[in-house]
Predict the 3D structure of the following.
Amino acid sequence: MSAPTLSRQSVQYTPRSPADPYPTRLARTPDQPWLQRREAVVKGDPDQGPLSAQQLDAFETRGFLFEPGFLDTEEVRALRREMLSLMNTPSFRGRPFTITEPESQEIRSLFAVHFLSGRFRQLAEDPRLIGRARQILGGEPYVHQSRINYKPGFKGKGFNWHSDFETWHAEDGMPAMRAVSASIVLTDNHTFNGPLMLIPGSHKVFVPCVGETPENHHEQSLRRQEIGVPGEAVLAELIRRHGIEAPTGAAGGLLLFDCNTLHGSNANMSPDPRSNVFFVYNRRDNRCRAPFAARRRRPEFLAHHPDREWAPDL
């Protein structure tokens, strides 16, 4: 995919590190609006895992795969009860790993859920998920991040377009695109309650973002992200080429998407809440090191170490 011609001033920039193939959080807009991805998308064997060759080809081409009915009704009910129990735990309120909506006290995200809950840990380690992650990544996965996302009816705000890898690379020190996200919808997703939107094919390029990472950026970005967001011109061009898709369906569906697929969501305009549980699987040989575009790593509830347990400071 060649870079488009965009009507804007071209300026030179110097990557912060010659060893960094994905420079971002730049002082000025770069000449090239995107860089070619270096890693393969699907790295595993079609014959060694639960996904078919056709499903893997779709993931390779589009950067995501939606599987309706991944969990049955009883599994979803049990997880939804556990989710509500966690969100109503008084000792979790006001903690750094609990994120509320910018203009209310409604919980927006609860992080590190596979450490907070035995049921969600069991789900994170479920062979159905691990097998899919291993097959896509071509190596042994570990959970880099887990969270519950919740959009209350009428009040749930949206998320700006972004690549998760851009943030994990810049602020967590993830070296390469060897991670996959697994999102299981716990409530029905429909057009009006803010489903996840993705730009198919966007995972094959890396879009550098402009703006230095502020100190403790996660305290703001988890509520409203403004740094680490692609510019409107490059977004418009990618959407012109590839379009936007928003997988919807009944609770229990599984959305797998590449760490670099551009995605976002609208506000919840309906009375129906929207919730999902989200696990990021990173390859063990791709564990995080020093961040590439931040002064220090984000807290461990956002970026887990593969050989260390995390516990909340209550």
Summary: The CA atoms of residues 111 and 147 lie 4 Å apart. Confidence is low (pLDDT under 50) at residues 1-15.
